[in-house]
Specification:
Rossmann fold, globular, 2 domains, 213 residues, alpha/beta, 9 strands, two-stranded antiparallel ribbon, seven-stranded mixed beta sheet
């Protein structure tokens, strides 16, 4: 049996982080295989990008189903696809018990802030309104809380005086595309230990680094 780690990617929109993961796999910077790309929105642009990359892409609209009912169906689909890990990439739904129990400590998300600051929607706008001088992005394991699981890796992005929401989002997204595959490399290799909320890599994990503007 092929030992390559098998991942599924969940998205709701443009799918740029899904594409970054796929490109890292193509470039052999990430040892993984994407077995499914799934969106809760049939019109999501990320589905078409996935198909252009030759990846199996599926729409699973909610159609009024309760959250746990939907997540149970999603978990069943992912298991049948052979997924071992689930990567959220702009997936605009809270994950509930059936999915968490199907993939314990194997659901990963990336969020456009330095968690625990600014969880939830419009994190970049929250950062600007709060007046912070640094923001960034966080890769974390997913639990039942909103953007609250153990942190895997972070990258810092300075907030510049001239920044508006679009410009800050653009520069944070550049770091997301770099950080997510790097963090997945450590997680999929199993080369880490989870001690409470702390993830300790047996080798150095992606560092929090201030990037020039």
């Amino acid at each position: 049996m092929d030992p390559t780690p098998r991942i599924a990617v969940l998205l709701s929109g443009r799918g740029s982080n899904m594409e970054a993961i796929a490109r890292a796999i193509q470039a052999k910077r990430l040892n993984a295989r994407i077995v499914a790309v799934i969106s809760n929105r049939a019109e999501a642009a990320g589905l078409e990008i996935a198909r252009e990359l030759g990846l199996p892409a599926h729409a699973m609209p909610v159609r009024g189903r309760a959250r746990e009912e939907y997540d149970a169906a999603l978990a069943s689909f992912l298991r049948e696809a052979g997924a071992e890990w689930v990567c959220l990439a702009g997936y605009m739904r809270l994950v509930s018990r059936p999915l968490l129990e199907a993939f314990p400590r194997r659901i990963v998300n990336i969020h456009p802030s330095l968690l625990p600051a600014f969880p939830g929607l419009e994190a970049q706008r929250q950062a600007l309104e709060y007046g912070v001088r640094y923001s960034g992005c966080t890769v974390h394991l997913v639990d039942a809380t909103l953007d609250g699981g153990p942190i895997v890796a972070q990258a810092v992005v300075p907030v510049l005086d001239a920044d508006d929401e679009a410009e800050l989002s653009r520069r944070i997204l550049e770091q997301e595309h770099r950080l997510y595959p790097e963090a997945l490399t450590m997680l999929l290799s199993g080369d880490y230990e989870l001690q409470g909320r702390r993830i300790k890599g047996k080798k150095p994990k992606p560092d929090m680094a201030v990037k020039p503007s």
